[in-house]
Amino acid sequence: MLLVLPIVVVTGTTLTVALSPYDIPGLGRDRGVSAKPSPTPSGSPSSAPSPDGVSPSPSRPGASPAGSASPSTGAPGGVSGGGGAEGAGAGGSDGGRDPGTSDGSGGDGSGGSSSSGGSGSSGGSGASGGGQAPAPPPAPSTSGRVQNLAVGRCVAENKNTFSGSSSVMNAVCGEPGANGTKRYYTWTYQPVSSTRFTLVGETGKCLKSNTFYGLAVEACNGSEAQLWQIGARGAGGHTLKSSDGMCLAMTSNVGFAKAACDATQKSQLWAS
């Protein structure tokens, strides 16, 4: 506040009065008058409080303000998400890798060759899956009776001594013929390949698979109906498989039968 004081100067006959202002320190502050603020040096941070009353921390050159989010390439909204490190999935034997992403989802990591998969199923062995593998035939020119293990009877050639014709019958092994017939029980195995053979009777005729239920004999000519093979060997005997893929069986005292080959069925096993 300024206070005006009169100064009286006497010079001869003249009286001069001058008013001189005088600043009383502190008087303006006591009356609520703000003093003029001092200027802020250039380059220094301002100390003025923020509108919310919180003073900001001084900034460093090149530093980002606290709490700001750094933009990342490919991130939605310019904010990088967590979890991007999970994207590096281990590859398989071909070295394939998924580099992952920075958008927080992580890569699948599904690399690798399909050769790492489980091994394929192995194929069936010889006789499994595709039917029974044929067994080796008897030694060449092996001779003997063809006797069924279930019934105990034999395959016999029954020859009419008057007409010379022959037939095949289910007979008691060794039983002689009657009423002008003669029976022959010995058959000789004659191989025609590594697995197939003919059965030649004592009269020189070959045993033939005639019909589904019958057998016959005829002059040997190498026809398919005269070819046999041993389908499988069982306890005490073997099966006789004809060219139609069926096995010879004996289930009673009359006639013959054919059935799907099964070496566990005693009616299909023959001792010879």
Quick overview:
With 272 residues, this protein is mainly beta. It is built from one helix and 20 strands.
Descriptive key words:
mainly beta, five-stranded antiparallel β-sheet, 20 strands, single chain, three-stranded antiparallel β-sheet, Trefoil (Acidic Fibroblast Growth Factor, subunit A), 1 helix
Walk me through this protein's architecture:
The chain is mostly beta strands and 272 residues long. The chain has a domain at 143-271: Trefoil (Trefoil (Acidic Fibroblast Growth Factor, subunit A)). The protein has one helix and 20 strands. It has one helix at 27-30; strands at residues 2-11, 14-23, 88-89, 98-99, 143-145, 147-148, 154-160, 166-171, 181-184, 186-191, 196-201, 205-209, 215-219, 228-229, 233-234, 237-238, 241-242, 246-249, 257-260, 270-271. The strands form eight sheets. It has a five-stranded antiparallel beta sheet, with no helix packed on it. It has a three-stranded antiparallel beta sheet with strand order 8-7-9, with no helix packed on it. A two-stranded antiparallel ribbon has the order 1-2. A hairpin with a 5-residue loop joins strand 12 (205-209) and strand 13. The termini are far apart.
CATH topology of the domain at 143-271: Trefoil (Acidic Fibroblast Growth Factor, subunit A)
Mean pLDDT: 67
* N- to C-terminal distance: 149 Å
Highest-level CATH class of the domain at 143-271: Mainly Beta
- The level of helicity is under 10%
Instruction: Name the structural class.
Output: mainly beta
Q: Main beta sheet, described?
A: 5 strands, antiparallel
Q: Would you count the extended β strands for me?
A: 20
